[in-house]
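Hello,

I think I submitted the NAI job twice by accident. Can you confirm which output corresponds to this input? Input:
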Amino acid sequence: MSSKSISNKKSIGVVGMGSFGTAVANILAAKNKVIAYARRAEVVEEINTMHTVDGSKIHEDILGTQDPEYLCKSCDTIFFMVPSAAFQEVIRAFSPFLYPYHMVIHGTKGLCLNLPEGKSLEEVAKISRKNILTMSEVILKETVVIRVGCLAGPNLAKELSAGQPAATVVASRFNEVILEGQRLLRNDKFQVYGNSDIVGVELSGVLKNIIAIASGALAGLGLGENAKGLLISRGMVELVYLGNALGGSLKSFIGLAGIGDLVTTCNSTLSRNYTVGFRLAKGEKLPDILNTMEEVAEGINTVRLMKAFVEGTGMRAPITENLYKVLFEDLKIEEALQYLMKYPFSVDVDFI
Ligand SMILES: NC(=O)C1=CN([C@@H]2O[C@H](COP(=O)(O)OP(=O)(O)OC[C@H]3O[C@@H](n4cnc5c(N)ncnc54)[C@H](O)[C@@H]3O)[C@@H](O)[C@H]2O)C=CC1
Ligand SMILES: O=C(CO)COP(=O)(O)O
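Support: Only one job matched these inputs. Its output is below.
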């Protein structure tokens, strides 16, 4: 498409130019001008003068800004691509400039804790569904935006940036959000499916990270493909149980954003969650791993939240509970594995 033919259209906004935000901004820029928000002035400067992020070339139709008001005025559709730990803070900075005519689609695979002011997870220990927010719920809570969507699926940013074929799911209660996501993102290397169960699709992307950490740990122990197949299938059962308890539907968990992303992240050294598990199994301590990782591994916080949720509801989630002990209580991975091998699972599939 020529730059002339896109000049009259409104730009598309992208908030957060990390790995995933940059990959998605590049896909969007093939069809539309993009305005990208980055919090650091040097990143904005690099985008606008060099057309690079972290030294990697980006599309020339991406304009950097540090100004939420300018971005919201210039764009009707905005993609929020920041980690869950920063999501609430970032959405609050944009909230004064967001109106009901905006469409907001996020790509964040994490959860927010929703506790009374001043309370921490350590103090409450057990939580229920009302203490957990998916990112679409954060957007609805913090802004007047109505048409909210999410983007989830097997979408390793490095593969997308290399132009490898992939597919994603745009989920929203509003069909127009799904259609807009498809119109903006679809190309001959990127297929876009729709789903109306936004919470189920969000939870798919969130919960598979737990199993990806465990899969990396198995690989780090030098275990083979039989063990991985066992983990992925039992992990799927756990994902379905937790996901159902949090309000998602089975149909989403067995789709591209669920099983599709589970398989991808459980098998890829490009996954940060998988890498955390792998390094743990090689004997590194979690704080050391976190200190040397530049990018976010959402699964660590998700394990903390899900462990507290499981305790609050009386459910059992053996992989998550054992992984919690490995991450935060120094349980040896070999011992966690032994425990799981002795766990009295009896029925193969009991969720259909
Ligand atoms: N990298 C990947 O392959 C994929 C990542 N995701 C999800 O996308 C989300 C973002 O991940 P990545 O881009 O990989 O992370 P990243 O660590 O590469 O980048 C995060 C970006 O958010 C920005 N940010 C952090 N705190 C901020 C704040 N307070 N205000 C403004 N900006 C802030 C950082 O400056 C950075 O640009 C995560 O939830 C992740 O699970 C989803 C699919 C694929
Ligand atoms: O979700 C992802 C790919 O779909 C990325 O996984 P990581 O966050 O583990 O890198």
